[in-house]
């Protein structure tokens, strides 16, 4: 069994983080659509990956405590997972996909808060500014 | 008119030039020219006639134009009366000159021959020239001058041979009648009437031609009437079309006025449509841009992770380089060992120097040493990080990604700005257009288009009708022109008819005047002829007078008033009647001309002879008597002084038998006895 094959089928976040994701993402079947105010993210996957990146870039991670809430199926992340895996594996000497995903969730817990804080304050996320961070 | 001088040159028997000058004393008015038979007496009379008329005019002969044959027969040296036999005259030049005067004018009549070649032998070899001078000046028309002096037809009553008297008295043929009327100047009226008849015929001909030129006026009127009707019909239709056209144009004007009011709104609506289209386009563009957002949002975390990945990559790079160094070291030792082994196999150095045993031993030791070191180096090579290449590839992928959120955002902002701007304009226009009825504008435009189509159709019809009317009006103008010309011709016809009427009246007037004239003159002739007849006749106790009918037939009326048939008279009496008529005619005509009597007394008995001689001086103003020698002798014996007192000159014509020519000798015997 490969390391990838160890990916958990579902990625879960803390309830607080979930609420933040929900506030900024368009959900499947969301009736806001194009007629309502445009969502910051098209889906939870986009928000999760950006939260992970921000957490890593800011070197901020948080343990997920308490009740966990199902956020996204990991199959939606399969196409984008490899760079995270390489980075986390190299930097933190973790080996299994579960460890990696757990690390990603922890970074995402921190990253989503940064995003939500901006969203809460401005009603939007300045992706261009975030792009400049690189 | 009196003959003043006669000049002959090579005329008949007269060779060379001969002339006689005649006295014209009123009381000595008789000139006698006498000679033997064949001496050339009659040539004197013929010379006068030839000079005046170009030929020897005889009673009852129709006057004609002279020709060269008439002249050739008189040229001295030719056969006098048989020119066809030919003859070569010694001198073809011939002339006769006459000097005549009428108390006012002096006429010089010249007729002469001019040979065409040096040796003429026939009439065709000569020309005849004829000139008349009046008071020393050439007359432009010599023939007209002769008509004034003495017309050829009248000459038979003034210049005649005695033998011709009987002919005159017996045959009053048409030519004689005309000659009489000519003397009486009645011919002038006849000519006038004849001219008028010619005029009448000319007018009638012109009238017929005019009638033939024009078509029937009724046909023209009908044609014009039809044209008028058609033109009126077309004009009525044209008027209707023009009214409809005007009405439709008025409607279009009203619509256009209304549309002009709405024009601004129309433009705004067009602008609004355009803005909306632009908005749609920009929205489409924005949608395209937004489609990139999802991918960008996926790429964005990787861009953020890139510095971390590069840090990791940096560590991996060091490890990788170290392993590579270790590999190189091992490979270098291994290479050196293999080289040494090859030397041993070759048993000589690379430079060809053979390897000695000591050297071989040394090399063998070195090979072993190198082998040990290579093994040590190989064993010390670290295990390479398998993720090195994966991370490098990931970094390359992220760096090669064209995802640029800043540019995306910039494009997106630009589109949003465009949309805002467009929306602002749209809002403004929509605000302005609030209350504008777009449907009304559309309806008006549709109505205007429909009316314009109607105008086009009506306009074409109007043009076609105008062209038709113009064409027909032109045709009608032509018909009117023809009618006017016809009317003009009617006027001409009327004028012609008037002229015809006037000419007919004038002709009748001439007839009347002529009739009266003839009647008056005939009465005068009867009177004078009767007076002379009573003097000349030897039966004054029986005969009362001479009567003349309309055809100038002369008869004698006796004392009882009976008209005696000419056949019942003796030859001498008929000659006396003829002489009486001629002398009466001369007196009645009041024409003054020389009376030339050739061999006049031959047929008269003594009684008549005595009577005529006694009365002769009163017959004419100038009398030229041409007598035979016997007549001259008788005259001298019987006439006595009472006659010879009136004789101014006596000429004798003498024939020179040897020379074959004649001469004229003058015997002046003028003695005017008071």
Can you put this structure into words, describing what you see?
The complex is a heterodimer of chains A (134) and B (674). With 134 residues, chain A is mainly alpha-helical. Chain A has 5 helices and 2 strands; from the N terminus they run E-H-H-E-H-H-H. Chain A has a two-stranded antiparallel ribbon with strand order 1-2. Chain A is globular and about 40 Å long. Residues 32-36 of chain A have low confidence and may be disordered. With 674 residues, chain B is of the alpha/beta class. Helix content of chain B is 60%, strand content 14%. Chain B has a 6-stranded antiparallel β-sheet. Mean pLDDT of chain B is 83; it is low at 670-674. Classes of the chains: A mainly alpha (134), B alpha/beta (674). Chain A binds chain B through residues 41-42, 46, 49-50, 52-54, 56-57, 80, 82-84, 86-87, 89-91, 127-128, 130-134, and chain B through 293-294, 296-298, 300-309, 311-312, 315-316, 385, 387, 390-391, 394, 398, 404-406, 408-410.
* Structure summary, number of beta strands of chain B: 15
Low-confidence regions of chain A = 32-36
Instruction: Determine the mean pLDDT of chain B.
Output: 83
Helical region count of chain B?
16
Morphology call of chain A = globular
* Spatial ordering of strands, largest sheet of chain A: 1-2
**Oligomeric state as shown:** heterodimer
Low-pLDDT parts of chain B are 670-674
**SS element count, helices of chain A:** 5
Rounded to an integer, what's the Rg of chain B over CA atoms?
Answer: 75 Å
């Amino acid at each position: 069994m490969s390391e990838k094959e160890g990916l958990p089928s579902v990625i879960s976040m803390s309830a607080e983080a979930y609420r933040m994701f929900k506030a900024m993402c368009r959900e499947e079947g969301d009736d806001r659509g194009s007629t309502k105010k445009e969502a910051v993210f098209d889906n939870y996957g986009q928000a999760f990956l950006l939260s992970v990146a921000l957490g890593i870039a800011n070197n901020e991670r948080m343990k997920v405590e308490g009740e966990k809430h199902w956020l996204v199926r990991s199959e939606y992340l399969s196409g984008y997972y490899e760079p995270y895996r390489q980075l986390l594996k190299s930097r933190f000497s973790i080996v299994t996909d579960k460890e990696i995903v757990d690390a990603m969730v922890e970074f995402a817990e921190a990253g989503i808060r940064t995003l939500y804080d901006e969203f809460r304050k401005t009603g939007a996320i300045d992706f261009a500014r975030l792009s400049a961070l690189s | 008119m009196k003959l003043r001088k006669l000049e002959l040159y090579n005329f008949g028997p007269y060779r060379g030039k001969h002339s006689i000058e005649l006295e014209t004393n009123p009381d000595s008015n008789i000139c006698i020219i006498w000679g033997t038979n064949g001496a050339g007496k009659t040539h004197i009379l013929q010379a006068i006639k030839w000079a005046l008329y170009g030929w020897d005019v005889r009673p009852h002969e129709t006057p004609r134009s002279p020709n060269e044959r008439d002249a050739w027969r008189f040229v001295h040296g030719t056969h006098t009366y048989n020119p066809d036999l030919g003859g070569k005259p010694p001198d073809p030049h011939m002339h006769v000159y006459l000097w005549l005067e009428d108390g006012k004018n002096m006429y010089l009549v010249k007729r002469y021959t001019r040979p065409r070649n040096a040796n003429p032998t026939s009439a065709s070899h000569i020309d005849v020239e004829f000139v008349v001078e009046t008071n020393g000046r050439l007359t432009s028309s010599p023939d007209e001058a002769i008509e004034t002096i003495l017309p050829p037809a009248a000459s038979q009553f003034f210049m005649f041979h005695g033998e011709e008297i009987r002919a005159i008295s017996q045959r009053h043929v048409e030519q004689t009648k005309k000659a009489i009327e000519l003397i009486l100047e009645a011919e002038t009226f006849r000519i006038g009437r004849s001219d008028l008849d010619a005029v009448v015929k000319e007018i009638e001909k012109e009238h017929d031609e005019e009638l033939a030129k024009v078509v029937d006026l009724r046909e023209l009127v009908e044609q014009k009437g039809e044209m008028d009707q058609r033109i009126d019909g077309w004009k009525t239709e044209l008027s209707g079309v023009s009214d409809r056209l005007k009405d439709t144009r008025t409607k279009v004007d009203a619509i256009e006025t209304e549309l002009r009011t709405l024009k601004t709104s129309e433009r705004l609506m067009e602008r609004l449509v355009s803005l909306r289209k632009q908005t749609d386009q920009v929205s489409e563009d924005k949608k395209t841009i937004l489609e990139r957002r999802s991918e960008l949002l996926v790429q964005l975390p990787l861009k953020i992770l890139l510095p971390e990945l590069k840090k990791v990559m940096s560590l991996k790079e060091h490890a990788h380089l170290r392993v590579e160094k270790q590999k190189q070291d091992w490979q270098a030792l291994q290479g050196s060992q293999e080289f040494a082994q090859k030397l041993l196999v070759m048993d000589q150095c690379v430079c060809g120097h053979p390897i000695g045993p000591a050297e071989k031993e040394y090399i063998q030791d070195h090979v072993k040493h190198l082998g040990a070191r290579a093994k040590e180096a190989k064993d010390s090579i670290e295990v390479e990080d398998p993720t090195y290449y994966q991370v490098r590839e990931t970094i390359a992928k992220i760096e090669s990604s064209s995802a640029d959120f800043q540019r995306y955002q910039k494009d997106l902002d630009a589109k949003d700005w465009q949309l805002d701007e467009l929306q602002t304009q749209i809002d403004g226009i929509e605000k302005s257009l609030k209350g504008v009825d777009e449907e009304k504008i559309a309806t008006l435009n549709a109505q205007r288009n429909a009316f314009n189509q109607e105008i086009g159709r009506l306009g074409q019809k109007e043009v076609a009708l105008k062209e038709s009317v113009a064409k027909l009006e032109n045709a009608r103008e032509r018909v009117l022109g023809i009618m006017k010309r016809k009317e003009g011709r009617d006027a001409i016809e009327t004028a012609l008819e008037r002229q015809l009427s006037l000419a007919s009246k004038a002709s009748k007037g001439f007839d009347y005047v002529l009739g009266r004239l003839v009647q008056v003159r005939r009465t005068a002739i009867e009177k004078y002829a009767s007076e002379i007849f009573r003097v000349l006749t030897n039966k004054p106790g029986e005969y009362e007078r001479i009567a003349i009918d309309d055809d100038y037939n002369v008869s004698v009326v006796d004392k009882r008033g009976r008209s005696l048939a000419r056949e019942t008279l003796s030859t001498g009496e008929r000659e006396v009647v003829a002489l009486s008529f001629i002398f009466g005619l001369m007196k009645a005509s009041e024409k003054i001309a020389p009376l030339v009597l050739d061999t006049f007394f031959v047929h008269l008995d003594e009684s008549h002879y005595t009577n005529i001689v006694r009365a002769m001086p009163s017959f004419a103003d100038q009398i030229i008597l041409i007598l035979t020698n016997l007549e001259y002798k008788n005259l001298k014996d019987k006439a006595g002084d009472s006659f010879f007192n009136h004789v101014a000159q006596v000429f004798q014509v003498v024939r020179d038998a040897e020379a074959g020519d004649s001469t004229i000798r003058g015997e002046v015997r003028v003695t005017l006895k008071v």
